UniProtKB/TrEMBL annotation:
CDD domains: DMSOR_beta_like. GO terms for molecular function: 4 iron, 4 sulfur cluster binding; metal ion binding. The chain crosses the membrane at residues 12-34, 54-77, 122-141, 147-167, 174-193, 240-261, 268-285. Keywords: 4Fe-4S, Electron transport, Iron, Iron-sulfur, Membrane, Metal-binding, Transmembrane, Transmembrane helix, Transport. InterPro entries: 4Fe4S_Fe-S-bd, 4Fe4S_Fe_S_CS, Electron_Trans/Redox. This is (4Fe-4S)-binding protein. GO terms for cellular component: plasma membrane. It comes from the Bacteria. The keyword Membrane applies. It comes from Desulfosarcina alkanivorans. Residues 310-339, 390-420, 601-633 form the 4Fe-4S ferredoxin-type domain.
Length: 645
């Protein structure tokens, strides 16, 4: 079997596997729906996810240890993930092949040549890792004050290792020693004057451009909702996601750029490819020329996917192991072997020292600048409601990779990607919108936390969510609290009977209770007493439509006696009004005024019982801006957001 055939089979297999994991990330009773499928496995194989969370939090979620396997294999084999496993890379390669097939050799070599701009992806990687490293650097700064000897040991180790390596490579380590010494001096000075808490912060933003979360988000939130319908039913309800147009535009832009340059995204943007380029630039096994036999025909450059120029000096960091050069070489010069290319190699990525420092400094500054908005502090937005089990906001932003898994698995479709409601850092992170979907956040659902690959939404048990068993003393998890807008509520503002929110409140005892009151109804004219026969009351005045006033919520008050309870209207017909309770009519005279009353049950919210599930907001009959709305106040995950002592 040809090596490129084996590679294509591998790419097709992992591409279909990826799509399958996206499709089965839904709750249901069918055999193919979520039944223990390892839907996050390909994300866990992504070492950039693990490295980013490790830098941002100082911890590594157990499932992300799979990334170590990818790292080890990359060091041994090279960028095999890009050329053999990555589903996003496979899609780019297929589109690029379709766009360029049939072109002449010279045109294909020109399209596949190396470009200086391919170094941009390394700058993007450094920027994203820098943004995730601020908290770690802050902790080291604080350590430099409490235990300065630790910093001295670290600096000494860096000087020793770096100097040896530098001397071996360039016979001069003066600049390296000077640089480390200056950095150490600045570090110690900063450690004594600041703890870094104000100008150093960590924010995990790798998921915006990391190809696996990006492709997962694009498929889950833009592609699958389009094909879900009568013929193919992928979820219990049709899915809608605000911001899907921006996600779709980004996705299709990356795809169509392959028409200009094959694997455009992989070459110029992909931070994961940059990480693999650094890990695999000196891989034990690599593609390159053998010692003799090259005729400089250029066939190996014709289909090169990475732009690594195998016909001349090989750029090993750019090789994605597509093996096209080996397949195209008619003289058996190109091979995959444990020694460098005979034509020479350029192993160092095309990113100079100034560009590296600029990208790192920009990344370190990005998170503190974003925090100046105050979205994680006093200026937090109460409209941003996180799913149950979410970590406190700062820790949440240090873990969420914006993959969209939680949004896809939500059975009621109330988890949506945030826009700028959560600030720049929270762009495309999950938040709840109770106006959409089929209901609120169901009490018996804990799916989102069990699918989150980084534990930004930690996995919780049903007992913990409901506050039962071992969690009785803590009570149920609250994701927010409902507030009644009296200016829009039908009973409060418009004298219209409505208890929909109270009826649909799922907690027990109910978090929404009502207080009864009677109010006069505004009519076009006055009602006058004509007479009464049994429970039948005759009145004169404006017409009273039965479909409105015979619903059981309207009452009649007559006479001048105080303390007489109003009588409920049960029927309205040509003969007058039928009353459930006959009021005393002996004190009424013909022509006396009759008062029409409406009984209103005014809703109130008990903050001790409300868990912020949003069912009331979803079911509220006031469309648009609901008359009862849930905000993040009183949520369990942030102690400072609590309303009650």
């Amino acid at each position: 079997m040809r090596i490129v055939t084996a590679r294509r089979i591998s790419q097709i297999f992992f591409f279909i596997l990826f799509l399958w994991f996206c499709i089965v990330s839904t709750l249901g009773e069918a055999w193919w729906q979520l039944r223990g499928w390892p839907v996050g496995w390909l994300i866990q194989l992504d070492p950039l996810v693990g490295l980013g969370t490790l830098l941002a939090t100082g911890t590594l979620y157990a499932g992300l240890l799979w990334g170590l396997l990818t790292v080890v294999l990359t060091i041994v084999l090279g960028r095999f993930f890009c050329g053999w496993l990555c589903p996003f890379g496979a899609l780019h390669q297929a589109v690029g092949w379709l766009a360029n097939r049939g072109h002449r050799t010279a045109a294909m070599i020109a399209a596949n040549r190396y470009r200086r701009a391919q170094g941009i992806k390394y700058a993007i990687l450094v920027f994203l890792l820098g943004a995730a490293s601020g908290d770690l650097i802050g902790r080291l700064l604080r350590l430099s004050v409490g235990a300065p000897w630790v910093v001295v040991v670290i600096v000494a180790a860096l000087l020793l290792v770096g100097t040896v390596v530098h001397f071996l490579r360039t016979i001069s380590g003066v600049r390296w020693v000077t640089g480390v010494a200056v950095a150490a001096a600045v570090w110690l000075v900063l450690g004594f004057f600041t703890d870094g808490s104000r100008w150093l912060a960590a924010s995990l933003q790798t998921g915006l451009l990391d190809p696996v979360p990006l492709f997962c988000r694009s498929v889950n939130l833009t592609l699958l909702p389009l094909v879900d319908g009568r013929l193919v039913s992928l979820s219990t309800t049709s899915r809608i996601y605000p911001g899907a147009v921006v996600m779709g535009a980004l996705f299709w832009t990356t795809i169509f750029l392959n028409l200009a340059v094959p694997r455009f995204y992989c070459r110029f943007v992909c931070p994961l490819g940059a990480l693999f380029g650094l890990l695999g630039k000196n891989a034990l096994w690599r593609v390159g020329q053998r010692a003799k036999g090259c005729t400089a025909c250029g066939a190996c450059d014709r289909h090169c996917e990475g732009g690594c120029e195998p016909a001349t000096v090989m750029r090993s960091a750019e090789c994605v192991l597509c093996m096209n050069c080996m397949d195209s070489c008619r003289h058996d010069v190109m091979g995959y072997h444990p020694y460098p290319s005979a034509a020479g190699e350029v192993a160092v990525p095309d990113l100079n020292r100034r560009e590296f420092v600029a990208a790192l400094a920009a990344g370190l500054a990005a998170a503190p600048l974003a925090r100046l908005e105050g979205m994680t502090g006093e200026a937090w937005n109460p409209a941003v409601i996180r799913p149950p089990g979410s970590l406190p906001e700062t820790e949440f932003l240090q873990r969420c990779i914006k993959c969209g898994q939680c949004m896809r698995v939500c059975p009621t479709n109330v988890i949506h990607p945030a826009g700028l409601q959560a600030g720049v850092e929270g762009f495309w992170t999950p938040m709840l919108d109770f106006r959409m979907g089929t209901s609120g956040c169901q009490q018996g659902c804990i799916a989102c936390g069990n699918l989150c690959p980084t534990a930004a939404i930690r996995p919780i048990s049903l007992d913990e969510r409901l506050g039962k068993g071992d969690f009785t003393s803590r009570g149920p998890i609250r994701i927010g609290m409902a507030f009644v807008d009296r200016g829009r509520c039908l009973p409060w503002a418009m004298d219209r009977p409505c208890i929909v929110c109270q009826e649909n409140c799922p907690v027990s005892p109910k978090a929404i209770f009502t207080r009864e009151t009677f109010r006069p109804v505004r009519l076009d004219g006055k009602l006058r007493f004509l007479g009464m026969t049994g429970s039948r009351l005759m009145v004169d005045g404006p017409a009273l439509p039965a479909e409105r006033f015979a619903t059981g919520d309207y009452f009649i008050s007559m006479g001048k006696r105080h303390g007489t309870p109003p009588a409920r209207i049960t029927e309205i017909g040509p003969g007058g009004l039928t009353l459930a309770d006959t009021p005393p009519a002996e004190t009424a005279n013909r022509g006396d005024p009759v008062t029409l009353l409406v009984r209103l049950q005014l809703p109130y919210v008990d903050p001790a019982q409300c868990i912020g599930c949003g069912v009331c907001e979803h079911e509220c009959p006031v469309k648009g801006r609901r008359a009862i709305r849930v905000t993040a106040e009183n949520e369990t995950r942030q102690r400072r957001h609590r309303l009650l002592l």
